[in-house]
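Predict structure. Chain length: 131.
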Amino acid sequence: MVAQTTVRDAVVQRSPGQIEQMPHHDQPALRRRESAVEQAPTPAPKRPTMTGKFVQLDCRGSQARMIVETDAGRKTFLIEDPAKVAITAGSDGPVDMTCGAQKATPKVEIGYDTPRTGQTGIDGIVRTLAF
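Prediction complete.
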């Protein structure tokens, strides 16, 4: 969809102290400079992921922590802000996340950010969950 705008009675500054009215028949025009070089947007850095079995949801404290059993051992991931976590469910259907040990231990892939300086006891901050 293209929108057009007409500028009427616009004030154009020609030089310091000199102001001139733009005539009604003049319309502004946008022109592309020949030397303009288009740059592709910089892709966002790929977020690290870890796959394992979701074994526990620790709800003590003000923020929940997911404990995941991986090939490298148990890992703890902080759910800093649940509204900022993108969750997708696979063919196994929905997953109930309840506090404590999980009755079923569904496979999960966690996309995470590395902990900030001073954040100890966690392996990452949860950003995506794919069950």
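Summary: DSSP finds no helices and nine strands in the chain.
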